[in-house]
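Wed. Picked up where I left off yesterday with VanZ-like domain-containing protein. The coffee machine is broken again, so keeping this brief.
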Amino acid sequence: MYQSYLFPIAYAFIAFPFVAALFTLPFLIVQYRKYGYIHKVRAITLYLLLLYLMNAFFLVILPLPSSRHNPALANGDLQLLPLQFVYDFLKETSVSFRHPSTYWHMFVERAFLQVVFNILLTVPFGMFLRYYFRVRWLSGLILSFMLSLWFETTQLTGIYGIYDHAYRIFDIDDLLCNTLGGILGFLIAEWIAKRLPRIEHLDRHIDRASKRVSYTRRAVAFMIDLVIWYLLMILLTLNDIPIPFWISSGIYYILIPYWTHGITVGKWIVRIYVTSTHPDHSRVSLLALTIRYGLLYWVFLGLNNILSDLIVLPDIHTVWRALCSLLLFVIDISFLMHILTRLFQKGSVLCYEKLSHTKHHIQWPELELSTSNEADQKVDV
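Structure written out below (tokens, as returned):
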């Protein structure tokens, strides 16, 4: 009995790192957009929620049928009689109510354990709803019921048509037990919340001046900008614009940030912008942007582009191909080492930032710093 529950949980933990990796990028973007920074408590809570949902979902769908063409359930796939589990327990139990010494037997019997596990399944869900999302009890009741209904529908439809027939029964008792579990979790969270930092107060006392733009944040902006820049370069190539690599990088990384006061699409999404470190300059200059991004894209990436093209030329001499490959390796490994050394040195800047006298700043959102009474009056579904 217990093995049937441990098996899905083990698979959920194995799959969690891969799902968490996919979850990280949208998580970072939402947190940067909404709060302007990443708070550890908020991050840990959301990743725990993801882990819980994966465990709950795997418990619901696993084990899967051996074939997509599974047979229909012999006794039907619907159980719509409320409290049927009471009848099942009385029918199967070895407990004698006239002999108290047999009461402990119920703790190892299928009918009893199934009810207990169905209740426990959604207790964490109710806790997350109350502690993190600050929903009221009626919203918690509805959302717990909806989660359970999704579980049962997934089973009834054979995971939405993947399997020919339902491989588990749609049981109304499961809906009742799961909903009860959500409400129990909601009540438990009321007690736990008094001993943990209140989610709605996390941003009250942050020191904005002490927050620095992390390399993680810059990497997210860089990846987004890289995609848009590449699309612009393809567009210029298709329209027979000469030297599209150089023109597209100049337009996207120099001219556009100059017009938008240091903002690109990627930087706008994660709420950062480039500004001058010179105390007399209110905005970054065209010269500073040209030095900054000229060094990064025209010198570093430009050399990569030229050397890569030379290496693949069919008629290039072997010696020259080897020299170009060696030079490309030296350039790339030197730049990588430069980034890594700066990554682990607090307050250090990259070479193109130092030479251009530019740096990143956070574009802070207007955070809602409501009082606890105000937050309790909100109904966030």
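Quick read: The CA atoms of residues 72 and 165 lie 5 Å apart.
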